[in-house]
Amino acid sequence: MELWLDALAIVVLAILIDYFIGDVPNAIHPLRWMGNLLDFIDRHIKNRASAWTSFLGFLSYLLVFLLFGGIAMLIIVVVHHYVSLYDPLWGEIAWIVVTAFIFKIQFAVFSFRHHCDPICEDLDNGRVEDAAAKVQMIVSRNTKGMDPEHIASSCCETVSENLVDSVISPTFYFGLLGIPGSIMFRCSNLMDAMWGYLNEKYGRLGFFPAKFDDVLGCLTSRISPYFVALAALILRMDWRAAVPAAKAEHTKTPSPNSGWPMTAVSAALGISMEKKGVYVMGTGPMPTTRDVKRCLRLVELTSVLFILTVCFALYSVCGIHVQLFLEGLFF
Fold first, then answer.
1. How far apart are CA 110 and CA 269, in angstroms?
2. What is the DSSP code string of 155-208?
3. Pick from 113, 164, 193, 279: CA 20 to 30 A from residue 255's CA?
4. Among candidate residues 299, 244, 249, 239, the one with its CA nearest the CA of residue 270
5. What residue ranges do the domains of the chain occupy?
């Protein structure tokens, strides 16, 4: 097939895998393995105050990226090469399927439904404490004693923030650089989540991955409100408010990037999101379970639109060629 058809097949198949199959079990998920490796490195670093520790953070990133990126590329190359020995057409099909599966591991469009739907069910049935316990699984704040409005807000905040971290950024860099690009972002994002704390323990060790994650997310976070607006237009939400709100309110979050999608989504939904003592964004009422479901639809449609347009366009003209070139280095 033509390369652009291969690219289209990979992108569409990855979306279908995400929708119908979802994530691989957590026990065997590559992100879990990355986390275990990082925990091992963390436990063996004693001196946290020297400049050498900052360099160790950089070396740790390189190790994780080269290890998992290399394994992913090796799997793709081996499957492509050996199946092609029997039949070139089946070799191409196998390459498409394996690439799509590994690509899908790097992003998640529909997974937050599995977390948010049970929370909404608890809230609708008055089980507020159960909902607060479940929402603790998707946010870092203390949720004990949280009221229904702030539980619903926590869901909307997490879903909208992860629009960039879990979808737009990994798929954008997949479009630019193929599988290595998506893994490049996923490694920095995971390391930022684990080590990117401004404290004595991780201030130096997590410096490089945290800053690199900010750099990689700079462009993708700033283009996200435009796709939120497009999805809001299709869903008949307040699409006109999304981009202006993002430009005006994105600085409310501590992160330089997360405020862009969050403020755009809150404006399109016509709600407010509040993390007590940190920020309040939006001018509407606090969200209900109905708004959480609207938020899921909005973010999911935004994600699919971005993947089918920007990600596919970039991958067909750039990323697939980079990936094939790197695959060629293995044989």
1. 19
2. HHHHHHHHIIIIIIHHHHHHHHHSHHHHHHHHHHHHHHHHH--SSTTTTTTTHH
3. 113
4. 239
5. 3-328
